[in-house]
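Action item from last week, closing it out:
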Amino acid sequence: MAETANHGTRLAPGIVVHPDHASLIQLLDQAPLRLPHYLAWLLSSGGTLLDGLSVFMLGMAVPLVQREMAFTPWQLAFLGAGLVAGAVLGASGGGRLADRIGRKAVFLLDMFLLVLAALGAALAWTPTLLILVRILAHRGQSF
């Protein structure tokens, strides 16, 4: 680590931090990974896996839902596109919302939206309602 002219500490090329933070960053970089770290990583990466699982499950359910609810081809297209639309809506506002109300609050809101959307999907009686709750589910998954 080297001191720079603007009283910062250079950790790497292009990375300058306040001298008070440099020792903390160095300790974190040198700390060994233990079981709690791996568990935190596993739990935090679950959202990405859940997103892929949701897309896979929708693909498996489309033939069954099509027969049960008499979807038109356009409604089926919107059901699939709703996954991407919900992800775009969630990703476009999730970070900014987390900056305003905090990450924990956004995470809890995310879980609430997922539970609400799962219940809505289970109880949906029309294709339009199912499309809307799937958009809501993917909005929640994308926070």
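Closing note: Strands lie at 2-3, 9-12, 15-17.
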